[in-house]
């Protein structure tokens, strides 16, 4: 088990859901701590509590927004922001056949219930995809946007 897989398992064992785990990993990359943000990410858990769009998809979009979206009235989103989210969602939809669908209830149904190894594999692939997309745009995941000089 590599370091990322181990950390995913630890965060899951602490009771964090998939969307919270993706954001927690991003914050850890930046050496940041933001419990209110992690708490807010719980709203995306289990398809926003209704079996809807998988929290990995919505959580991944939120992580990309953390790096590239507008954060205040005097800040502009990076030009690459729409492309980042679009490419991530395209990847998620294209990969969905591997795990049974894009909705939490579809994934759980196809997999025979919530299975940590399935959700963990989806999380790991999403994390790798997010980091790859950020790298393609020259965005350093270890730097908060405010410290990255707009990149």
Helical residue percent? Answer: 55-70%
| Mean pLDDT value | 89
Please state the CA-atom Rg, rounded to the nearest Å.
Answer: 15 Å
Identify the quaternary structure here: single chain
Structural class estimated from helices and strands: mainly alpha
Into which percentage range does the β-strand content fall?
A: under 5%
Instruction: Name the poorly predicted regions.
Output: none
Total separate domains: 1
| Cα separation of the termini | 32 Å
H/E series, N to C? Answer: HHHHHHHH
Sum up the overall morphology in one term: globular
Largest sheet: none
The total strand number stands at 0
State the helix count.
Answer: 8
Structure notes:
By secondary structure, this protein is mainly alpha-helical. It has one domain (3-142). It is built from eight helices and no strands. It has helices at residues 3-13, 18-29, 35-41, 45-51, 55-68, 81-95, 104-111, 116-136. Helix 2 (18-29) runs parallel beside helix 5. The N and C termini lie far apart (32 Å). The model has no long low-confidence stretch (mean pLDDT 89).
